[in-house]
Amino acid sequence: MTHFSHQQPPRLLVVRNDKLGDFMLAWPALACLKASEPTPHVSVLVPGYTAPMARLCPWVDEVIVDPGDGAGREARQDLLAQIRAADVDALLTLFSTPRIGWLGWRAGIPLRLAPATKWAQLFYNHRITQRRSRSAKPEYVYNMELAEALLDALALPKPTRPAPPYWPLSAQEQGAQRHRIAEELALDPERPWVFLHAGSGGSAVNLTAEAYARLAQDVTSRLDENSAPSWILTAGPGEEDNADALHRTLKGMALDAHRLPARDGLGDFALSLAAADLFIAGSTGPLHIAGCLNRATAGFYPARRSATPLRWQTCNDATRRLAFRPPAEAGETDMHAIDLEAAAEQIARRLASSPTSEPSTT
């Protein structure tokens, strides 16, 4: 066990170097680390794709970009030099791979903690058994447990677990995003705005565009004029054509539909989600950004045990979270089996009872 004085806060390196949604679900763990005393210096190792989000994270002091598994020798040596120069006291790897375990060992980091899975754990001197494949808890809770285990190993006090929002924005920032979109799309800010992200990010199983169109039509039909939403369609890289086609479909159904204008990179796109009253998507990175912002969310999940609504739950308040999945007897990826009428009823009820969300401030 390592002890640190109040004059010398520990320097921590947290690794989550895979997909966007996984990284967003690490923010509660990062918030937990930053809430300890003395306040640690927290660096993160992330891929270039999620680095813009890491730079926006209020719980991160330094961002180190991982060149990835396919990097050449020079890039690997440069990464090792960066980590050595960071003078890290402890490494927390939220998703363990042999390359990262070997990197932490070669960098000479004294305390190295990771889940006790796969042979990569051989490179760590602190290991925590979690059995995540059983999907018994939300991913972000597993991550917070690892953060708390690291604080225990460092003999630092464990704070009360932070509560949402894990990405706290000021009311002024949220208002600025809403004002920006209202001007761009000539929207009424008094009406509810439902953001709909029909893309999958290349990983998550999602509803088809046709199913989302039926859902939007059904939700709107259940609401009166005052609570009927404006639908704002979003898209990730390479998903623009599909979002444009869905936009045309919704316009053809006489719905108030719009395309979110192009944004200046991932960070700018993420900030725009603060304007949403409700965000609808599959279990994708953008859904988890909205969850971190404590926006109301409606997520559509497959029936796979490793991808359950509990395991990949958004980290917003429970009162702001809806989740839908196929029945247990359906195929693992049979999203057609989801009861869209029941989903539309719950979403419409949510919009009718709380048409526009209040800002989520600290």
TrEMBL record:
The keyword Transferase applies. It comes from the Bacteria. Gene3D superfamilies: Glycogen Phosphorylase B. GO terms for biological process: lipopolysaccharide core region biosynthetic process. One of its GO terms (molecular function) is ADP-heptose-lipopolysaccharide heptosyltransferase activity. GO terms for cellular component: cytosol. SUPFAM superfamilies: UDP-Glycosyltransferase/glycogen phosphorylase. Pfam families: Glyco_transf_9. Keywords: Glycosyltransferase, Transferase. This is ADP-heptose:LPS heptosyltransferase. The lineage of its organism: Bacteria, Pseudomonadati, Pseudomonadota, Gammaproteobacteria, Oceanospirillales.
